Amino acid sequence: MGSYNSLNARLTELTTQLSKKDTEVDQQLDEIMEASFDDLDSEIEATDKDLRDGLRQRVEAVKKGIKDRKDELRQKVRTTREDRAGKEAELALDRMQEDLSKGDLDSAHIQRWVASQWLKASK
After folding, report:
1. Would the pTM of this model clear 0.85, i.e. be above it?
2. Which end of the chain is more exposed for a tag (fewer CB within 10 A), N or C?
């Protein structure tokens, strides 16, 4: 058994070692936590970027879909208008021909004007 002084000196030395070890562990823990936070921040930033990119792509796809649909509808309207104009012009020409065969020049002139207007609309 040691004397009080040697035991006290040993306690002091071991307490110093314990404090040193505590400090090292605290530093390691701080480094681990900092690295974890940095990794977490990086993951959050990457996720945010992925979400923004995904949303941007969806918005662009929707915009393109809307534009394509509008273009398709415009083309259908244009085609329908041209088809109708062509049919109306053809009907007016048939009436004009009928009026000419009857000798009704006034009606033939009117039908010629109507056919002309429908042909302009079909361009």
Report:
1. no
2. N
